[in-house]
Design goal:
CATH class of the largest domain: Mainly Beta
CATH architecture of the largest domain: 3 Solenoid
Number of helices: 5
Shape: flat
Distance between the termini: 90 Å
Strand order of the largest sheet: 9-12-15-18-21-26-29-32-35-38
CATH topology of the largest domain: UDP N-Acetylglucosamine Acyltransferase, domain 1
Strand content: 25-35%
């Protein structure tokens, strides 16, 4: 599909510098764009020389100062948020496939299941007893829904998602393929030298506007709830253990592991491969760096890194020293030897 620049400018509330009637045929990245594509630039690396791209149209910040040599033959659109504006156009040029409401005849539907308006249940799914599903919910092939589950409006479960019994899922939630919600926690008690399983009878509660990445595992509470707050986004391969509480608008990057009964505040960022021990609290607005090992409480508004975790600025100094340790060890042994020789004299 084609879009004229002046129409695009209206959609993203942009100011046009260049040909208002230019026809855009597609969207692309800065490096891969062709002459009739639109792209965006926000990094100084790209803004310093827009001629690096072959795109016909570039979206830039509204503070960008246009240099005719820099922008020769390129149409520039100035907006407040170029990245958000660009991805609004991605949806325009690549609209989602429209599917009509249906319940596929290969899906098993239990007793007393209540559907809202416009359900889409694709092939080979299963829905247990006493399940309540809101309006415009889409369950893709192979989705398993256990007994007594609630799913809110406008929620999308991608192929092979498993939602175990009693789980509560809010509105406007996306759960990606292979994720398991409500599995038993890793709970055992020792008895006569053996590990006896603890029965988990709690459940998972997921808020509104949440997106869960592929192959996440979110365990049910042992007795109470595991809670994922509103607006939380998780990357792929994240594990959240039993009775964890995660506050609103928190971001969790790939391969993070959070042990049981930990509390994560609002607006927290946990970077990739960080590990968080159980029964600790991480305050609001904290950032946990990649590969960090959090072993105790972190007060709000802190940035921590390293193993064990410490203030980020201190960790930067530690990292600079680590590579010098063999040399420092050698020098220390030399000083000790000299000191002993002096003492003997």
């Amino acid at each position: 599909m084609e879009q004229i620049v002046k129409d695009i400018a209206k959609i993203i509330n942009a100011t046009i510098f260049g040909n208002h009637c230019f026809k855009v045929k597609g969207v692309s990245s800065f490096d891969d764009a062709e002459s009739q594509d639109i792209t965006f630039a926000i990094d100084s690396k790209y803004l310093s020389d827009l001629q690096q791209t072959r795109a016909g149209v570039v979206i830039v910040p509204e503070t960008f100062k246009i240099d005719q040599n820099n922008c020769k033959d390129i149409i520039v659109l100035k907006t407040r948020n170029p990245k958000a504006s660009f991805f609004k156009l991605v949806s325009l040029f690549h609209p989602e496939k429209i599917q009509l409401p249906c319940i596929h005849n290969t899906s098993g539907i239990g007793y007393n299941v209540k559907f809202g308006k416009n359900p889409i249940v694709e092939s080979n799914g299963f829905i247990g007893d006493n399940v309540k599903i809101g309006d415009n919910v889409h369950l893709m092939p192979g989705v398993y829904i256990g007994d007594d589950v609630f799913i809110g409006d406008n929620t999308l479960l991608k192929p092979n998602v498993t939602v175990m019994e009693k789980t509560r899922i809010g509105n406007n939630v996306i759960i990606h393929s292979g994720t398991v919600i409500g599995s038993d926690g890793f709970g055992f008690t020792q008895d006569a030298g053996t590990h006896e399983k603890i029965n988990h009878i709690g459940y998972v509660c997921i808020g509104n506007n949440v997106e869960i990445g592929a192959c996440n595992t979110i365990d049910r509470g042992t007795l109470g709830m595991t809670i994922i707050g509103n607006g939380v986004k998780t990357d792929n391969l994240v594990h959240i253990a039993h009775n964890v509480k995660i506050g609103d608008n928190t971001l969790i990057v790939a391969q993070v592991g959070i042990a049981g009964s930990t509390r994560i505040g609002n607006n927290v960022i946990i970077a990739g491969k960080a590990g968080i021990t159980g029964h600790v609290t991480i305050g609001d607005n904290c950032i946990v760096g990649p590969f960090a090992g959090v072993y105790s409480d972190v007060p709000e508004n802190q940035i921590v890194s390293g193993v064990p975790h410490m203030p980020h600025n201190l960790w930067r100094k530690v990292v600079r020293i680590i590579t010098r340790l063999p040399e420092m060890r050698k020098a220390l042994f030399s000083f000790e030897k000299r000191l002993k020789n002096l003492e003997n004299k």
